[in-house]
Design goal:
Elements: E1 9-13, E2 19-22, E3 26-27, E4 30-31, E5 34-38, E6 57-58, E7 72-73, E8 76-79, E9 87-88, E10 94-98, E11 114-115, E12 129-130, E13 136-137
Parallel strand pairs: 1-5, 8-11
Antiparallel strand pairs: 1-2, 3-4, 5-10, 6-7, 8-9, 10-12, 12-13
Length: 143
């Protein structure tokens, strides 16, 4: 798949690793996939992982041209220092995340856990666009 305007755009489900055609945000002349993380009907610390590690989506796991440059993304926590004590955004719903203007989701050098309230995020996260920020940039959530 060529990642240019006019081509199909896909949401990638981290659990099934399946791509589903959808509408997406355009960033300049590029169109990037949206990462979809499904919460749990029970919510809690296991909403986006096993209670120890957050689910992560590594775009270099996909055999798509240019996707390795997208990096890695995990769902965002509102508070917490690890997945074991996380207060997730939208734990009973979902998180849709777009890589923003820089076309990079971030990396997993810190184990992938991202907590806005505890300042556990990367510079590349700040321009990511998500439903948890009202489809605005993640930077708008920083207190």
């Amino acid at each position: 798949m060529d990642m240019t305007v006019g081509q199909n755009v896909f949401v990638v489900d981290y659990k099934s690793k399946k791509m589903v055609p959808v509408l997406a945000f355009k960033t300049g002349t590029e169109v990037y996939p949206l990462a979809y993380f499904r919460g749990s009907s029970l919510g809690g610390t296991n909403a986006y992982g096993d209670g120890t590690n957050p689910e992560q989506l590594h775009f270099d796991d996909f055999d798509e041209p240019g996707w390795s440059e997208l990096g890695c993304i995990a769902p965002y926590a509102e508070m917490g220092t690890s997945a074991a004590n996380a207060t997730w955004y939208e734990p009973k719903k979902y998180q849709l995340i777009h890589p923003g203007l820089d076309g990079n989701f971030g990396d997993d050098s810190d184990g992938g856990f991202r907590s806005i309230g505890n300042d556990q995020y990367k510079q590349a996260d700040l321009d990511n666009i998500s439903n948890i920020a009202g489809f605005d940039e993640i930077e708008t959530l920083i207190p």
